[in-house]
Specification:
Largest sheet: 2 strands, antiparallel
Shape: rod-shaped
Number of helices: 2
Order of helices and strands: HHEE
Helix content: 10-25%
Strand content: under 5%
Strand order of the largest sheet: 1-2
Radius of gyration: 33 Å
Oligomer: single chain
């Protein structure tokens, strides 16, 4: 098993006296062959995979965060469902000033259901 690990380049010889009897034998030859062939740990380091780009925010910074699927601009006059064209959109309650326009009257997370 040790010899095969050396041949595949996934191990290297380490000796601890007094157990050095086989250090210059076929084990050292197997390690040298793997190193010369650039196999396993003797090969080049893999090219790192680039990190994925950070996801873009779902809601522009100028929109109310309670409504991630539509943009209701900050500071809009008090709106009611008939004032907007969107229906059945998500309403988040875990943000600052949740549902400032009261689109989700029953607080079930869906705005302008009717």
């Amino acid at each position: 098993v040790n010899l095969e690990l050396l041949r595949r380049g996934v191990a290297q010889i380490t000796t601890y006296p007094p157990d050095v009897k086989y250090a210059d034998s076929i084990y050292l030859d197997a390690q040298r062959e793997a190193r010369d062939a650039g196999i396993g740990l003797w090969g080049a380091a893999p090219t790192p995979t680039p990190a994925a780009a950070a996801p873009l925010p779902l809601v522009p910074a100028t929109c109310e965060p309670s409504y991630p699927d539509i943009c209701i601009p900050f500071g809009s006059a008090d709106l009611n469902c008939p004032d907007i064209e969107n229906r059945r959109f998500r309403v988040l309650w875990n943000v600052a000033n949740p549902d400032p326009h009261g689109f989700d009257g029953n607080a079930d997370g869906v705005g302008c259901e009717s």
